[in-house]
Amino acid sequence: MQQVPYNFLRSNGTVANIRKKPRDARKSVRDKNFVAVTQKVFAILEALSQQPKSGVPLEEITQITGMAKTTVHRLLYSMAKLGHIEQDPVTNLYSLSGRFFELGTNALPYQRLSGVAKPFMQTLLLTFGESVNLAVPHGGVAMYIMVLESPKAHRVAATVGDYSHLHCTSVGKSIAAHLSPEEREDCLRRHGMPPMTRATMTTHSQLEQELEKVRAEGVAADNEENGEGIICVGGPIFASNGRVIAALSVSGPSIRMSQNLPGIKTAVRETVRKISSLLGHSGASGPPSRESGQPLTAGHVTPSAVLSG
Q1: Which of 30, 123, 141, 242 has the greatest count of CB atoms below 10 A from its CB?
Q2: For residue 244, is pLDDT > 90?
């Protein structure tokens, strides 16, 4: 049956394209094995996926799904109780939780990457007692796909499914340093270089100098550039074709990280080298040229890149 598209205006002024099924003149045959509530649940999930970061108000979810407000509210409440939906206590907006993204991690094309990296991440966690993060380039930013949190009470850790800018985080710099100039420029044009703290670099010339240092040292540092009182050390992970496909970082409070910064840098550098080697990377790395035949994807890693080698 052909679906008829129509546009729905969100509360933030943007337009969402919704596909509405026309009525079928033929009498439908009831499928006794189909549980109707699942259709409602996935309709809500699809509505929430349209604004995965900023959240969606109850009224908008109701309009998008075409369900009664009480039904939507009860389903949202149930999914929140299960930990897959979050509601901001201030704005009351609903969004997908980190646990929802965790469900898909093993099904994503990053399965081999995660499997190879996890034992090394656990070693870093045990060695330094600080959180260890794994991120991949995605849509011009870095997306976290695995996080091992520090057991310490005062700790710093990312959330699976969250995103970080390329210019102010160690995983972002590790990725950006090994993109082509065209890819890097496209990422920065799309997401900008917002000043997250007083230490954040906000000019292209500053960033390019920093990325030269990253390429020379093999690791990147975020010295309170993304959050006050937080230091992160990251390094790039390469596939067999030399493409940067991920970055790994150790993050923690500045007061603890600064005491052993040289040792953490050495350990991260060696860790990403070993992971890259197990993924088939032999040594030479760098961004693809336009003559190489590889597409410029604004930092979005392809499944073949992750699974190669």
Answers
A1: 141
A2: yes
